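One record is set out below.
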Amino acid sequence: MSEAHETHENGVYDLIVLGAGPVGQNVADRARAAGLSVAVVERELVGGECSYWACVPSKALLRPVIAASEARRVDGARQAVTGPLDAEAVFARRDRYVTEWDDSGQALWVKGIGADLYRGHGRIDGPRTVTVTRDDGGRQTLTARHAVALATGSKPVLPDVPGIEEARPWTNRHGTDSSAVPARLAVVGGGGVGVEMATLWQGLGSHVTLLARRALLPRMEPFAGELVAQGLTEAGADVRTGVRVTAVRRPDPAGPVTLTLDDGGELEADEALFATGRRPATDDLGLDTVGLTPGAWLDVDTTGLVQGVDGDWLYALGDINHRALLTHQGKYQARTAGDAIAARAAGRPLDDGPWGDHATTADQHAVPQVFFTDPEAAAVGLSAEQAEAAGHRVRTVDLDMNAAQGANLFADGYPGHARLVIDSDRDVLLGATFVGPGVGDLLHSATIAVVGEVPIKRLRHAVASFPTVSEIWVFLVAAARGAGH
């Protein structure tokens, strides 16, 4: 141990991690558990985008909105919901969950696992070398014996339209760290961030206009976006699809913003939030020093190892490899990569075949995702369209969620729909989509069925508790088998 301590003082580690969000923390934790020495470099807050501007604050803000809506769906409870949400209390709740944007607790966690934390901007400076530049301009060079793991996440993309910079639009960060409710909010983008932000701010009292070039949630089954659009409309939002913003102007920095639309119309709002995509945060990481293109998504193998770099030492995990821009999927990749780094360091063979310990097979076959809208939208695996495009012979099973009595007891007039996508040749589940209040908690059972390739015949023996929303599984499996429930 004393020798390891001396090498730390000289800036030499087994693994250097750039980015201390959940992904970076997970790969560091896994490597430390295997006995490797680890340095973690972070230029902003330890905990990253997820902890302070994305998953955690957005869900802390959305939960009161959804809770109030769910109460209004239950006779007897709806009579108790007599006024609007207390926005100040909602913001205070958010502030508690982001610890007032104080990362000292997470910094202590990094140190608590035995990793060394370096605050500053980390940049690759040739093979296995990282230079850290602190805010005060000081620099330190670190060297990795075995690996460097990049976990720097992604950044929002604004469309290239006239006036966009001068208009100072909101992005996801403004959407989750703001503490004032605009009277009118334009949300541009119909993906997950767009629909969640529209749900949130409409619930807090804004009049939201949601503008989307395509249907909402275009990567999910079509009914998911349709039901979410219906829920937003019923909540009072103005949902417009098939529309594109061609220009933005805000002549008075303190005044309203005007969006010009491709149909020739205009929309005026007090703020405009753009949720129009993400780009990798790889533009200033020194990728050019190892033959890669700055600002590019990084191509990786199933262990997270970056392709096109000699020596098998550079890993890219989470958003920057573009496999699935979801925190839980990035953490899964990080756990896998941490184990692979430890195995390579010890000279052990890799278990990197399908569903092996060192393979991120779920990135291709079983990615779960939940959007905390009203109603919620949750899916795992392939949609019917994706499955057919991949060459599978498929059949689908569709049911309204209120086929289960538990759903009706959960919410009067429960709004929702479910679909299973089944491989006709193997009779196993390829994908599942649920839309309805609280369906996010149904998703893990579907994920297990997809990952485990559980035969539909066997699923009939997975007995759902009565009366719960999960009873929908009984009806779905029965329909899949052409039998009564």
